[in-house]
Amino acid sequence: MLNASSSLTPSAAFPEVFRGEKLPDSGQSALLQSIRPSSESIALLGTLENDSDVEWDEEDIVFLHWRLLKEVSDLRDPETPLEEKFDTLRWIFTEREKENRPFSFVNCLKVVGCSPLSPTPYFGHVDAEEIRDAIRSQVKTWLNATLNRYPGWVREAVLRNPEWVESQLAKNPQWINEQVKKHTVQGDLFT
C-alpha cells in the first residue's frame, strides 16, 4: 500500500546508505535488507526461468525493476565477479541521456520507490545522484575486495589498464579465470 507520508526525505528513507551503517549481525545495510520480494514475486521469478510465454502485468514489471536494483547489493560482495560489477556500475553511472529509458537505474529507483505494487515498503522519490555518490564513495573498496581474491599480476593488470580488462571480460566473462588457470599451468617463465 502506498504510504503518502511527506515526512520521508531521501536521506530519511536511506540514512544507512549515506552513512554506510550496517544492521547488527549482518553484512548488508538496512536498505538492502529491506528490498525483499513478496512470496508472489518469488513465484513469478520461478516462472520466468522456464521457456513458456509470460503475460506481463504492472506488478511483474515493477518486480523486474526491483530485481535490477537488487543487483546493486552484489557490488559489496567480494565473491561477485568483476565482469558483473563492471556491468552493474555501467548501468548505475550511465549517460544522462539514457536516464529516462525504461529500466534505467533512475527509473528503477522511481518505480520501486513509488509504486504501490513494489515488493519494498514505500520510500518515495530519492535523489539518484545521492545514491550514486554513496555508491561512488564505496566502489574502490568493493573492487579492491574482489581484486584481492586474485594473484598480484591480475590486480596489477586491472589497475594498469581497466578498460582493456573490461573489454576482455565483456567478450568472455571467464577471461580472468582462464588467464589465471593458464598462468598456473604454465608457471612464470622468469622464475
Q: Briefly, what is this?
A:
The protein is mostly helical and 191 residues long. 57% of the residues lie in helices and 0% in strands. It has helices spanning 10-13, 15-19, 30-34, 39-48, 58-70, 82-92, 105-114, 128-147, 152-160, 162-171, 175-186.
Plain-language structure description:
57% of the residues lie in helices and 0% in strands. The chain folds into two domains: 133 residues, no CATH class; 42 residues, no CATH class. The chain has eleven helices and no strands. The chain is mainly alpha-helical and 191 residues long. The N terminus is likely disordered.
The gross shape turns out to be globular
Helix percent band: 55-70%
- Report low-confidence residues grouped into runs of 5 or more: 1-34
Strand content: under 5%
Number of helices: 11
Largest sheet: none
Number of strands: 0
Question: How many structural domains?
Answer: 2
Mean pLDDT: 77
